[in-house]
Design goal:
Layout lengths: L3 H5 L10 E6 L6 H14 L4 E5 L6 H6 L4 E2 L3 E5 L2 E5 L2 H7 L3 E4 L15 H10 L3 E7 L7 H8 L9 H6 L2 E4 L4 H9 L9 H5 L5 H26 L11 E6 L5 H15 L2 E8 L7 H16 L3 E6 L3 H11 L4 E5 L5 H7 L2 H8 L4 E5 L8
Parallel strand pairs: 1-7, 1-8, 2-3, 2-6, 6-7, 9-10, 9-12, 10-11, 12-13
Antiparallel strand pairs: 4-5
């Protein structure tokens, strides 16, 4: 029987290194400790493991867990009269371990370093065929920056591109309850005693931690879904949470549909998308263009994503978009076609029922707004 570690840590001479990220909702959940714990297990199995950069932040348990693991001596960089330590990427590559541990992936390097961000150093190490295990807090993802600021009131300065998480070979969420994390904070296991009360009343408020925890779990769920779609493209509907797609048109009822779709998305704790399909042979009037722009603005107000597709086949365009974005709920209005047109050409709903057998369709009865 081949152990999983033997598969993951192959000879690094012919390939790019594997990247495993331990992600959590906030400092103190145990990402670094878990990374070190697993590193000891791998070392016991004969894997050549080194520490590239470790940030203990004075946590004794973390520092003790690192004992027995080889450390690649960091660079000493003088900045404004202060000597600071940064990871020595060249030394790691020269050492050629099978696995290197890199803490705090979103860290900004000291001015004067070869690269601005630590994740850029990690990419160099991976390109050299060395496997990397790293840690990351969810608030450091670029796409979540505005949302995290809205939740916590704190703008996170150190960020990484979402592609780093998307390209990772394995993502492990380190999860504890908000209550457990607050207890760790009170016990002095996260910050020094003089910072505990301030943290409890700011970033570590329970409602903040609940929201950040959900973000972390959702992000990993998305990662799993995308992997499933990539490995099995015929099995599209593997979504672990709902996604709502509202079909927009030039009719005034589109705004009503958007609001209804947003309510459905809120009730289902789902992501909201809006889609406008424009025919390639038709130009929108000024009024129609303003209407679509209004719909896009409203969609963004609901934290939704507005999509535009050019196609002569509206039903097929909706179906293709639903497959691409793993949509589980489609919202559209009643047909504006006459009975004669429906008889000869069929309805949009009938076509979508055939195309989207695994998707729930919501056909909303709407009335056009009366002009004043």
């Amino acid at each position: 029987m081949i152990h999983s570690s033997e598969i993951f840590y192959q000879s690094n001479s012919q390939r790019r290194g594997k990247h495993k990220i331990y992600i959590g909702m906030a400092p103190g959940v145990g990402k670094t400790y878990r990374m070190l714990e697993e590193a000891h297990q791998l070392k016991a199995e004969g894997i050549d493991v080194v520490i590239g950069l470790l940030e203990t932040h004075g946590r004794e348990e973390t520092a003790e867990k690192a004992i027995g693991l080889e450390v690649v001596i960091p660079n000493q960089i003088n900045h404004n009269g202060v000597t600071l330590k940064e990871m020595d990427t060249d030394a790691i590559i020269a050492r050629q371990p099978q696995l290197v541990l890199v803490d705090e992936l979103a860290h900004t390097n000291v001015p004067g370093s070869l690269r601005e961000k630590r994740y850029q150093d990690v990419e160099i190490i991976l390109a050299a065929g060395i496997n990397v295990n790293s840690t990351l807090n969810i608030q450091h993802l670029e796409s979540l920056n505005d949302l995290v600021a809205k939740i916590t009131g704190i703008v996170v300065r150190e960020r990484i591109p979402d592609r780093i998480l998307d390209e990772a070979d394995e993502v492990v969420v380190i999860d504890v309850t908000p209550e457990t994390l607050q207890e760790r904070l009170k016990e002095g296991k996260i910050y020094a005693s003089d910072k505990i009360e301030q943290a409890l009343h700011n970033f570590f408020k329970r409602r903040h931690l609940v929201a950040l925890r959900e973000l972390a779990l959702r992000e990993v769920a998305d990662n799993i879904e995308q992997d499933a779609v990539t490995s099995s493209p015929t099995d599209r509907y593997c979504s672990v949470h709902d996604r709502v797609l509202v079909c927009i048109s030039t009719y005034p009822n589109s705004i009503q549909l958007l609001r209804r779709g947003a309510r459905i998305a809120t009730q289902l704790h789902a992501r909201l998308y809006a889609l406008f399909v424009t025919p390639p042979d038709r130009f929108l009037t000024k009024e129609e263009s303003i209407h679509i722009e209004t719909c896009e603005k409203i969609c963004r107000q609901f934290n939704g994503i507005f999509l535009r597709v050019t196609s002569t086949d509206v039903a097929q365009a909706i179906a293709d978009t639903a497959h691409k974005y793993l949509i589980t709920q489609v919202v559209l209005g009643q047909s504006q076609k006459s009975r004669w047109e429906l008889f000869w050409r069929g309805s949009l709903v009938q076509k979508l029922v055939r195309y989207l057998k695994e998707v729930d369709l919501h056909v909303i009865a709407t009335q056009e707004a009366k002009s004043k």
